[in-house]
């Protein structure tokens, strides 16, 4: 959830992934394809789903997702770490 202090007419989500501190992946997504534009002033939700390939090596990863407006001004920055184990757990 993000609270837009002003209307947003466009922009993008920028995702960067690092593996043991080495940058390994980048992707950009049109904000208007993730939510409807223009985004009105106030709270709104942007969701992103990513499926990793089966050959993804185990280890420690860091993901940074930024949202920028149509003038490339940063609106948000979310960073989190995650780990992929050697074996998957079954339900």
Automatic annotation (TrEMBL):
Q: Which UniProt keywords apply?
A: Lipid transport, Signal, Transport
Is Signal given among the entry's keywords? yes
Per the record's keyword annotation, is Transport included, yes or no?
yes
Q: Which residues form the MD-2-related lipid-recognition domain?
A: 1-82
A GO MF annotation of the entry reads: sterol binding
**Gene Ontology biological-process annotations:** sterol transport
InterPro entries, per the entry: Ig_E-set (IPR014756), ML_dom (IPR003172), NPC2-like (IPR039670)
Q: What does the UniProt function comment say about this protein? A: Catalyzes the intermembrane transfer of phosphatidylglycerol and phosphatidylinositol.
How does this chain assemble? Monomer.
What family does this belong to? Belongs to the NPC2 family.
Protein name as it appears in the record: MD-2-related lipid-recognition domain-containing protein
């Amino acid at each position: 959830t993000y609270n837009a202090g002003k209307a947003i007419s466009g922009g993008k989500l920028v995702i960067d992934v690092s593996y043991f501190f080495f940058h390994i992946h980048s992707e950009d997504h049109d904000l208007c394809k993730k939510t409807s534009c223009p985004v009105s002033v106030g709270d709104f939700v942007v969701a992103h789903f990513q499926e990793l390939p089966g050959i993804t090596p185990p280890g420690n990863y860091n993901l940074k997702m930024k949202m920028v407006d149509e003038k490339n001004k940063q609106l948000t920055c979310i960073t989190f770490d995650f780990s992929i184990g050697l074996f998957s757990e079954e339900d």
